[in-house]
Amino acid sequence: MFFVSNISVLRCAVKQSNKAMGRRKSKRKPPPKRKAIEPLDQQFNCPFCNHEKSCEVKMDRARNTARIQCRVCLEDFQTTTNVLSEPIDVYNDWVDACESAN
């Protein structure tokens, strides 16, 4: 009896000592950090007078039109838009129209 009880005590001591030991470090990589989404520009450089951020886009979603106008040289451009159009698309249409005219 004495021998059996000592074995059970030793088994409990071994189990507790295994729990106290540290685990190996995980080799799993941390999840990638999410990049902050930057909003698209609303003001652009004028292709005629080259002033920085002097052109502003006004979008009329109800009429499916957009107008971009320079505050310095008062040049303007109007185009049709769709549901997915953004101000950068209107500016690119204006630059493309300027290049095709020249």
Automatic annotation (TrEMBL):
Where does this protein reside within or beyond the cell?
Nucleus
Keywords from the named record: Metal-binding, Nucleus, Transcription, Transcription regulation, Zinc, Zinc-finger
Any one of the GO CC terms: transcription elongation factor complex
Under InterPro entries, the record lists: Elf1, T_Elf1_sf
Query: Where do the record's region annotations for Disordered lie?
Result: 17-36
Entry's SUPFAM superfamilies?
Zinc beta-ribbon
MF (Gene Ontology): RNA polymerase II complex binding; zinc ion binding
Q: What is one Gene Ontology biological process annotated in the Swiss-Prot or TrEMBL record?
A: transcription elongation by RNA polymerase II
Residue stretches of biased makeup (Basic residues): 21-34
Instruction: Say if the entry is tagged with keyword Acetylation.
Output: no
Q: Which family does it belong to?
A: Belongs to the ELOF1 family.
Name of the featured protein = Transcription elongation factor 1 homolog
